[in-house]
C-alpha cells in the first residue's frame, strides 16, 4: 500500500465468467471496506454478452448490498496501462486459479480463495438461491477478516502472506 494512508487498497477478484462469485466478492468488499478498500472483479473468459447472475444480484440486494454498476468484464480491462493498479488479486474459482494470468502492472500480491460455483448444476432456483446465499456468507467471513486486519498486515510487503493465510480461514 502506498505511504498515503488515505489511498484505498485495490483488490481484483477473478473467476472464469465473472458472473457469480467474483461479482459477489466485489460488491461485498465495496460495501464493507469503507474507504480502505476498492474492489473490482473480472473474468478470464466471460461469455459474449455475459451478465451478472440474477440470483447473485438478488442475494446481494436481499443482504442490503448495493448492486449498481456491477457488470461482467474481461480481466484484459485491468491489464491495460490506464487501468487502476491492483494491490491484491484474488481468484475465487479453481479454474481461474490455474489459468495463465496477464502480467499485472506493479506486481500485486495474489491469493486463491476457492468457492464452489453456486450457479452450477440443474437444481431448482430455490436451491441455487440458497447456494448463492451460502457462498455470500463464506465470502463475507473472509472479507470481514481482511478488512479488520491492522494496517501493517496490509502493507505491500505483508499482503501476499496475509491474503494466502486468509484462504485457510
Automatic annotation (TrEMBL):
Pfam families: LMWPc
CDD domains: LMWP_ArsC (cd16345)
Family matches, as SUPFAM superfamilies: Phosphotyrosine protein phosphatases I
Domain Phosphotyrosine protein phosphatase I: from-to ranges: 9-149
Domain of life (superkingdom): Bacteria
Keyword terms, alphabetized: Arsenical resistance
PANTHER family the UniProt entry points to: ARSENATE REDUCTASE
Protein name: Arsenate reductase ArsC
Organism expressing this protein natively: Curvibacter cyanobacteriorum
Amino acid at each position: 500500500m502506498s505511504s498515503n494512508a488515505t489511498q484505498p487498497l485495490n483488490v481484483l477478484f477473478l473467476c472464469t465468467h465473472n458472473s457469480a462469485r467474483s461479482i459477489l466478492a466485489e460488491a461485498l468488499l465495496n460495501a464493507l471496506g469503507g474507504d480502505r478498500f476498492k474492489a473490482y472483479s473480472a473474468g478470464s473468459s466471460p461469455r459474449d454478452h455475459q451478465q451478472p447472475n440474477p440470483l447473485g444480484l438478488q442475494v446481494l440486494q436481499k443482504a442490503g448490498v448495493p448492486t449498481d454498476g456491477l457488470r461482467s468484464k474481461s480481466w484484459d480491462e485491468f491489464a491495460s496501462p490506464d487501468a487502476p493498479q491492483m494491490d491484491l488479486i484474488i481468484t475465487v474459482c479453481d479454474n481461474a486459479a490455474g489459468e495463465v494470468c496477464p502480467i499485472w502492472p506493479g506486481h500485486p500480491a495474489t491469493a486463491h480463495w476457492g468457492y464452489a460455483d453456486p450457479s452450477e448444476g440443474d437444481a431448482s432456483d430455490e436451491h441455487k438461491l440458497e447456494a448463492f446465499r451460502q457462498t455470500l456468507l463464506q465470502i463475507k467471513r473472509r472479507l470481514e477478516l481482511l478488512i479488520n486486519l491492522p494496517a501493517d498486515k496490509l502493507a505491500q510487503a505483508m499482503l501476499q502472506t496475509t491474503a494466502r493465510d486468509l484462504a485457510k480461514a
